[in-house]
Amino acid sequence: MEVELDIYSGRENPRVPLPAAEAEALASALASLPDAAAAAEPEALGYRGLVIAAPSAAIASLRIRGGRVAITDAAGAVAWREDAGRRLERRLIEAIAPSLDPALAAYLREATSR
Is 23 exposed, middle or buried (0-12, 13-18, 19+ CB in 10 A)? Predict the structure, then answer.
């Protein structure tokens, strides 16, 4: 399973493998998040969030951004969850940090601490 950093405009976003232990824990982490109302994703420059394609047979993609998680199922329906304190987002960043340039990992930590 790969995590895409939604960070660049005009060039390909980096993709890094999600460690197996985190990939296995992802489903239970998602299940523990409370429901949230649908939200528009604001356009921004720089880091915008994480994208995970096909994390399971039932989920086509995840977009994790600014304390919100959009879960798109195989039929295209989107369910929203609240990632209070950006805990899931920061956990995933820490899991992939060893695969990133140290400066990029530091930038992501800073961007998600706000």
Answer: middle
What order of strands is seen across the sheet that includes strand 49-53?
A: 15-17, 2-6, 49-53, 59-65, 68-73, 78-82
Range of the domain at 21: 2-111
Q: Quick: pLDDT tens for 89-106.
A: 999 999 999 999 999 999
CB 79 within 8 A of CB 35: yes
The model's pLDDT over 37-56, given as tens digits with 9 standing for 90+, comes to: 887 766 778 899 999 988 78
Regarding beta strands 68-73 and 59-65, do their DSSP bridges make them parallel or antiparallel, or are they unpaired? Answer: antiparallel
Structure tokens at 96: 């992939």
Q: What is the pTM of this model?
A: 0.89
Helix-, strand-, coil-residue percentages of the chain, each rounded to 5: 35, 30, 40
Q: Compute the distance between CA of residue 74 and CA of residue 82 in angstroms, rounded to an integer.
A: 21
Determine the Cα–Cα distance for residues 112 and 94; give it in Å rounded to an integer.
Answer: 11
- Provide the number of structural domains found in the chain: 1
